[in-house]
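REQUEST ID: PR-0412
SUBMITTED BY: lab tech R.K.
PRIORITY: routine
TASK: structure prediction, single protein chain
INPUT:
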Amino acid sequence: MQDPSWWNVIVSWFPFVLLIAFWIFFMFALKKGGVFKEQREHMKRNQLHMERTEALLERIAVAVEGRPQEKT
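STATUS: complete
OUTPUT:
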């Protein structure tokens, strides 16, 4: 039986090592929050905007309901 050369071992294991390295990098990046930091900030801004819009609509609804109805 012939021993595999180092080149064959490296080539055959390279995809697995690359996949594991990418997984480790991605896990550390998620823990730090660097990868999705912009998305989280965007979602926070959207949430604040929605809360302000809901408060404004509530104030408008109260103002409209508090007025006496016009006679037609």
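NOTES: The chain has a mean pLDDT of 83.
REVIEWED BY: pending
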